[in-house]
Every structure is written in structure tokens, then in C-alpha cells.
Task: structure prediction
Amino acid sequence: MARLDPVDVVVVGAGLGGSAFCARLSERAPHLRIVCLERGDWVDRSAMPAYRQDWQRAALGAWATSPNARLSADPTSPSADYAIDDSASPIKPLMWSGVGGSTINWAAHVPRLHPSDFRTRTLDGVGDDWPFSYFDLEPYYDLNDTAMGIAGLAGDPAYPPKHSPRMPPLPIGRMGELAARGFNALGWHWWPAEAAINTVDREGRRACNNAGPCLQGCPIGAKASADLVYWPVAQRNGVTLRTRCVAQQLLVQGGRAIGMIYRDSSGATQEQPAAFTVVACNGIGTARLLLASNIGGGDGALGRYLMFHPVAYARGMFDEELDGPRGPVGACIYSHEFYEHRPGRNFTRGLQLQVTRENALLLQAARLEPAWGASAHRLLREEFRHSLSVMVMAEDLPEARNCVALTDTVAADGLPDVRIDYTVSENSRRILDFGLDRAEEMLRTVGALRVVRVPLAPWSGWHLLGTARMGDDPSRSVTDARGRCHAVPNLVVADGSLFPTAGAVNPGVTIAALALKIADDLAREVVG
Amino acid sequence: MTPEFLSAIVDTLLPGDHSAMPLPTGTAAGVTARLERLGGTAHDTVLAAIARAGHGEEAFVRADAAGRIASVRHVEAEMPEAFRALIAFVLRDYYEAESVLLAMGWRAEPPQPAGHVLTPFDDALLEPVIRRARMWR
Result:
């Protein structure tokens, strides 16, 4: 094993958290030597499937959203995946492993958390308060908005005023207009989706042309992703990015992190000494690496309190022709009518209703039941270009039993294999059922001929949160408010693992804002 | 396996329809030809099981639609995983075929570079929402 020259900071993971962290720290503390280790590689935009005739099948193979699906369907996927035993979870984890992380294949629907999400214990008696407020994080939301470029409209009454400039919103299309009329008829809130997607040419990236399959990557770069937004800054500032390097073990001596052992792209083992170590490998990868390094001794909160956002769908079929799979798939309109906690309901906290666009024809055909025969043709005719889907996204409260854990086998990447144990709670189930009723009510209001309900969508586990949560109590948290591990103070976490609670919205911009804040916290310490 | 037998299976799975813009059968969309070229590989087990359930390849070909469907359903229940893999294979070829995409009112070209046009956002729709009081806590 070679021992490399020491650096000031070694960062593990070049996804959204790690990328934003590297860019910000290198701006605030330009004298620091920063190295980032990324298990995957840069994605080749020219290889993204949207220009190809076989673009639909790519979504079931090399460009599937699930790492397990990619591994079994197409080992040539450009994502550097590891298998996750998800047999004990009804929700399957989704991610991308490479420079940019899951922003490569995210929908780029970027709502912020609400201020109340930071105070669930104080306001509603559940979960845990965050160690800071929405307004403490707000400047970092604004910084990320500026870096990514946000399309949207100011003035949403569901949020405090937002100060960063917006591009015009994405077109909501016929299905968005239909849903908006439904929400209006019921007197419910709705708003055009905030999206990290260009609606005008901006900073060298083109405007979106509504092509559709955002989850298989955006070859024209209209959709913001961390490789496009943060890495040019970080590399200009001198951050060294080492791709195809898999972190194996954090070295700890005398209660301090002293460096990281990793396997490089040639398979050789290296030791990278560093004054600070930052881990940003998402809610599964971070816990996996830190558990494998025996951080915290295994008795505390590390790996526990795993939160997804359980998701259900109500899909309405209409006589009139709607858009089909035109436009950014996840960014149309949303309703926060039922987001805030209201006493008297049979659940605590709330939900987001999100109007999503149709999937490609093949994907819709593949999930039909039955998927063959004349009835499959009839069903597909009924729904393709004639359906409107409302996604119900529930707030998932933190529960210690939901966890990421290691198995006793070793994976091909040299780390222990990983599994997740996760159960949808009674409270989450009640939220989903309530949300499905409301979604169906809206769809019927605007004339749906038939409504299909999907009580729980298994392939929805994008939001991997809470497994290294922030807090003051080391028995219920892994890090403090600055992302510093209680057990190892110069070990920093900078990803979605930090969330003490999850809210009921997509967490992307909150992950980015957290990473930017944590970078500033570290810069203040080293620069003064 | 004979081309007639493969065609009979594919067209049982993907019979097409007779609407104004008719969906072609799986064979007409080129799926059988692809399955023939694949010959002797991944799906032989499930194809052979369908032949057995239909009392032989020739008998399956001669059977009426209801008889073929019954044989296929039998195998679907008997070996669900292998059957699902066969379905996944035929669906991929079928729903990528130009004739099928056009019959479904879509286009044959991939999403890029042309993209799609959507009607611009009409912000008048938002008037009742803009008038609402603050909702956040």
C-alpha cells in the first residue's frame, strides 16, 4: 500500500453533496489542498440514450434508475454500482454512482423544505428538530439556486419569499392545466414546479426542449447536475478529483480521523492522509463506509433512522388527449394544500401532491397487468397520451428500526455487502391513503373516466435520508450541526444522511444547501 | 422450433388490434424475426414449455386464440420468472418498432434532438392561489 502526500481535506463522493462541498470550500479557503475520491467516472453525455432509437429500453438496462436493476440487466452501465440487499424493504433504493451522483438521473424537481420541517418536535411533537432553522439555511438555498439556475415563479404562498432570481417556469402542458383546474375547482393550493432546468440558455447550458426522459440523463445539459454546475468551479479552484477510486476504510487514531484507504482505478490500494475527512456517499453509501470503519462502535444512531419518502400514485384516464411523455418527467405542478400538519387528521405531518408526466411507451407497457394479449393493448390505448398521474409523497418520520446494515459477506468493490431493513410506518400509510383519496377527488373533479390507484410505488427510493443524522444528543444523532461526527470530530458528513427529519418534498436542494453550509462552517474554522 | 410456432406465440402475446390506427401483430412488427435470430438461447425453456402445454408445436399453431391463450397462461403460472423475461424481450422489440409507435400516435424518432413543443404556461390560472394568505409555518 502506497502512502500518498498528506492533504488538508479528503472528500469521499462526487455526488451533489460532495461536489457542492468541494466547490464552496475551495472558494472560501483557496489555500487548502483538497482531494475528492469518486467510485465512478465522468458521464459521457454523448452516450446518453435520448438521441438513440433504443432509448426506451435503455431505461430498463444500463440507464435504469435502480443500481440493482442495472447490475442485473446490463453490467456495462456507466454507473459504478454496488448491489444492495433490499429484500427487506418494500421501497427499492435508486441512485447513480459517478461524478454528479444521482443528479445525473434526477428529475430536478427542487422544492425547498418548509420552515416547519426544521421544527417538527417543537411544533407537532414528533421527530426531532433540526439544529438550525430554515432561515439559517436560506442563504445556502439561494447560493445553490444561483449555481444551478432555477426555473419557477416567485410568490408561492406555501413558502417564505425566495430571494434568488428565477428563470420562467417550465411549461406545464395540457396535463398541468387540467390538474390546475382541478385544484382550483376544489380551492386547493398548487404551483408550477421549481426545477433546476434551464428555460432559457444560461451560462453555457441550453434551454430545455421538453424531450422528456430526464431520468436517463440530459444530453443537452439543460438539466442542472453537479458535474456541470459544481465541478467546473471546484477544478478551477484546484480541487483534485480522482475517479474510479473506491474508499475502503477511514483510518482513525486517538479519536481523530487521519486519512482514507482506497482502491484506485488500477486496483492498487492507496492511503490518503488528511487533516479532515468528509464523507458524502448518500444515505446508504455513507453509512456503509462508516459502519465498515467501525465509527461509533455500532451502538448509536449511525445507519439507523433511514427515511425514504413513501410514494403512491393515482392515475386518471381521460377522453381528451394530454401530453404523454412530453416535457420534464418530474417537474410539472405540485400542491402543498395538505403539507402542513393539521390536528384532527388521523396522521401526523403531511404530504405533497405532485403532478408527473407519463413515462415512455415501453415503460408504460411493461408495468401493465397483464402485460400481454389483447387486454394489454386495450389498457395501453386507454392510458397512453390520455392519463394524468398524481404522485402522493408522504413525510416519513424517523424510526430507529429502519436502517442500513452490513452483511457478513464482502462485495466486489472490497467493502462489506450492504442491506436495508425498512418498513412503511402506520403513520406514513395513513398519509398515503389520505393523499390518494385527495388525488382521486381532484382527478374525478376534472372528469377522469377511471382512476387507478397504486398504493405504494416500489421503484421510488431516490431519497436516502437520515442515517447519519444531525443533533445534539450522541445517542440519537451521529453529527453535530456542522456535520462533525460526535465520535470523531474531524470527520464530516455532507449529504442527505444528515437529515434529522425528511419533510415531504424532494431533498436535492436541501442536500446541496447543507453541503454548502458545512463547507462554510469548516472554512470559518480553518481560515478564521 | 419452427418459425410458424414462434410466430403463433408472439402473436398470442402481441395480437395487435383493429382500431383506426391499427396496432400490428408482433410478427408484423418484426418481433418474431428477432426471436428466431436469438434461437437456441435464453428463452428456449419457456418456449418449449409452451409447446408442451399446447400438445406440441404444430398443435399450438393449429389451436384457436382461446386455446393458445390457455397454453400460455399455464406456462405463465408454471414458470413466472422465465415467462416475465420472455415478455420483457418481446415488449422491448415491439414498442420500439416504428409501426407500433406511429399506431400509438407517437413518433418514430427518439426524444432528441427535436424535443417536443408544449403550450406556454398561462399564469392566469394561478390567480386564486396568489390571493391566498401565507400557508407556511
